[in-house]
């Protein structure tokens, strides 16, 4: 099994975004040392608790700080950007770290105001042309026919012998068929929509088998997970994410990441005791437990989805506890450098 990481650059309580960005580079080095397969950086705008606003910058820094691990975006929010600019940026990253760059494409809203701030043309309603945008990115990368468009004479890959690996990220399953038909990797965000994960990933596998055959069914499952020495301690650490989501829903705005103590004071007993393992066949939004507990959950999930790679999201307030969680998980799954 491959183990990977999606990094949000969590701002630890009592610190600031510059410190969070330094922690990001430490996380990349640690992940490589532990044998993680890839590390992706998220794109979150107008957030007090996370410093990952520009994954391209973090990818470049992390690629320079490491030598083996794959580095990429989880995801570039393509609905906000020019496909040509995205293709040029990731070709440049690929030139800097050949064979190690992943271009994860997604779409999301950060709310009406941020969406408007990210747009250059604010007088025309945005078009729902995500699939066309993906195909245009692939054409600019030289990975898809151009079909004689007005941009056919442009040649962004000139002088760059390799290409980034392209993935589509989703949380509803609607992009599974698109990814398979285009021969792209598919990453499902199980921490957003856990109930739909098996169906979406099996759907992608079936389409990929029909289109490209059994040789290329690149897919991964992303889950939120916290590992500690005991089940009780892991559950306690998991309260940070639960409280952060509750704060965001309650206030409708971005809030700082709470400490475990703040989370304990804010959450109800029901929220603290929400399932963190598969219960009555239903997947939790966050796995938490000892190494043995989390290993068992991940093995059940990979069996149900047919994937051989799991990507971890871990919103833990304390950087040392977060690093320890990543170490324990790598050991539990038998991951090692070069594996």
Automatic annotation (TrEMBL):
What are the recorded GO MF terms, alphabetically?
monooxygenase activity; oxidoreductase activity, acting on paired donors, with incorporation or reduction of molecular oxygen
Q: Where are the transmembrane segments?
A: none
| Keywords for this protein | Monooxygenase, Oxidoreductase
Which InterPro entries does its entry note?
Answer: Bact_Lucif_Oxidored, CmoO-like, Luciferase-like_dom, Luciferase-like_sf
Oxidoreductase listed as a keyword: yes
* Pfam families per UniProt: Bac_luciferase
Which parts of the sequence belong to the Luciferase-like domain? 1-308
Source superkingdom: Bacteria
Gene Ontology cellular-component terms listed: cytosol
Its family remark reads:
To bacterial alkanal monooxygenase alpha and beta chains.
Question: What is the name of this protein?
Answer: Alkane monooxygenase
């Amino acid at each position: 099994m491959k183990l990977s990481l999606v990094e949000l650059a969590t701002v630890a309580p009592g610190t600031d975004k510059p410190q969070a960005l330094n922690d990001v580079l430490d996380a990349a080095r640690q992940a490589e040392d532990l044998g993680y397969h890839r590390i992706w950086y998220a794109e979150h705008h107008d957030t007090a608790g996370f410093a990952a606003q520009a994954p391209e910058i973090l990818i470049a820094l992390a690629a320079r700080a490491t030598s083996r691990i794959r580095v990429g975006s989880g995801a570039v929010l393509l609905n906000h950007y020019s496909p040509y600019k995205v293709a040029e940026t990731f070709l440049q990253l690929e030139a800097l770290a050949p064979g190690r760059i992943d271009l994860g494409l997604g779409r999301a809203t950060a709310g009406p105001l941020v969406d408007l701030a990210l747009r250059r043309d604010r007088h025309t309603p945005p078009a729902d042309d995500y699939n066309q945008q993906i195909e245009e990115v692939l054409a600019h990368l030289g990975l898809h026919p151009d079909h004689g468009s007005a941009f056919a004479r442009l040649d962004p890959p000139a002088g760059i012998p390799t290409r980034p690996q392209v993935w589509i990220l989703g949380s509803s399953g609607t992009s599974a068929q698109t990814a398979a038909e285009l021969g792209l990797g598919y990453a499902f965000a199980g921490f957003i929509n856990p109930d739909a994960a098996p169906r979406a990933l099996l759907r992608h596998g079936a389409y990929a088998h029909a289109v490209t055959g059994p040789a290329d069914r690149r897919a991964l499952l992303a889950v939120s997970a916290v590992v500690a020495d005991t089940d009780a301690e892991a559950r306690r650490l998991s309260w940070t994410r639960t409280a952060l989501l509750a704060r965001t829903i309650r206030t409708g705005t971005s809030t700082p990441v709470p400490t475990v103590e703040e989370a304990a004071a804010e959450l109800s007993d029901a929220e603290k005791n929400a399932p963190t393992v598969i219960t009555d066949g239903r997947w939790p939004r966050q796995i938490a437990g000892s190494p043995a507990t989390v290993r068992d959950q991940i093995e059940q999930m990979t069996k149900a989805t047919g994937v051989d790679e799991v990507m971890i999201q871990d919103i833990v307030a304390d950087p040392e506890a977060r690093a320890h969680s990543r170490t324990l998980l790598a050991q539990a799954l038998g991951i090692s450098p070069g594996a």
